[in-house]
């Protein structure tokens, strides 16, 4: 077990290096530069040269890259051009709001998705199954920004039940969390359905039935755990993907999290903040994947053994 | 003495005397099972099935007396496994079932589902062909063997003690330690032993064993068979032993039911049926078993391919492969009739076989 974790962490370091390098290249290849944005269109060449030098942007690209990596291993991404304070501090300040949104969405997706998937997969081919299967396809196909706007129109403007934007109270969390959770819920439901339906065809389900268990006991006692294995993997992988959805949802609902910070920083060419945020997000995604793998091995004793021997 | 007679004697020698006749524990009476067919082959409609359904078990009748082993034998597709599944009530979705299954006089096909489920495991238990697939890979042996006891509310310590007992009875060495293992940590034979312990946990009166040795190594097969036989004797169990292997049935079954294409071909006491078959299919089965100890080691394999319920010939289903087939066999389906005390056959010309 420990050996597996250590191995995965070492691979993780490589992934982080890759992510850090990639974002370094992308922000520099993308059109626009921080100097002209900070100084505006009327700045003289002297001013531009001076700021470029003070930001270290006049140095050769490779030298910039090395010093960037050297600082990155200490989680130091330099000061934000825009806010004038350490970029990582800025990012970390926004992290709790995004974490709150992501956890709420994941909770909704897992609870609702598992319930729907079990309901549909326990009796494949029934009316319940067809309704669940059809509606999850629909949910998955709606674009997030459109769903967000629709929810605002219905629940905030027409029914006046929930606030449309901002944060602070649990009521503020509902609409963005639901928006972010909907496609995720659909994925979990569909995957659980398929997985449960497959598991229910296994011979050991017949064995469980031959003990006189009710269908419910068979489903919860024998099929659920074995069906969860692929679901856990997808939840782990998709929680990383939620980060991408969070960027859109946070902007639609003016949620003060990492996502809206990243969008602002990209438009302002605030390299430091973009790099720090990317680094952090990559780390979080990796951590989720690792946790998913560990849970996975706890669910299936066959995997657990292969890992340690 | 011909090779056929020697083989028959060898086969018959293995079986013990039939148990004294008494009120049957289970009476299978005109059992019919139809499965939905996925294809639209019009030939499937032959044989009187509902449109779009295949009749895989067609009017099967036999009794299982208490404390008796009944061997159910036939080639794959003969309907023997579906018969066992119908008895325990675990047919696939969409299956239709008819006839009567009287267990201690109560028709299982007409009891309410909750009562039927309650009988499962506690009165009628089943062991399956592939013990690795039939055991849940994510649960320990102890958990699976003890589940039925736990669910009936026994205290944890008692369940544990009973699981050790059951595993020990099934011949699992070091049961206290091995019960904490998962199925993949067991060998094939040990898994089947665990499966047997699992089936015995609810103290059933009737054990259905569906090809219990087929997936095992040859050396392990005999041991598992001996174990099943000794458990059956010790516990006074009734057992339905489903197998395609005549030798398996010959060694432990008191009575034998031979199935062909979803119907009973012949049934009766094992020694009599295998020693002096009253159906040409049974005779062909006996002749196809290689007689290891004789010098004429060449067995006579059955010619032709088995008829399937989906594609059953008219008249006697066996006639295309039967050396005795005549015109009548091609047109008239033989009814199962008594040809001697306790002996039943579905052959128009059984007397010729018996007198030969």
TrEMBL record, chain A:
**PROSITE patterns listed in its UniProt record:** ABC_TM1
Work out whether the entry's keyword set contains NAD.
no
Which CDD domains does this chain map to? TM_PBP2
A GO BP term, please? transmembrane transport
Q: Which InterPro entries match?
A: BPD_transp_1_N (IPR045621), MetI-like (IPR000515), MetI-like_sf (IPR035906)
Q: How does it sit in the membrane?
A: Multi-pass membrane protein
Q: Where are the transmembrane segments?
A: 9-30, 101-121, 142-161, 173-191, 228-253, 273-296
Indicate where this protein resides in the cell.
Cell membrane
Q: Name one GO cellular component term.
A: plasma membrane
Would you say which domain of life the source belongs to?
A: Bacteria
A matching Pfam family:
BPD_transp_1_N
State the family named in the UniProt similarity comment for this chain.
Belongs to the binding-protein-dependent transport system permease family.
The name on file for this protein is: Peptide ABC transporter permease
Annotated source species: Rugosimonospora africana
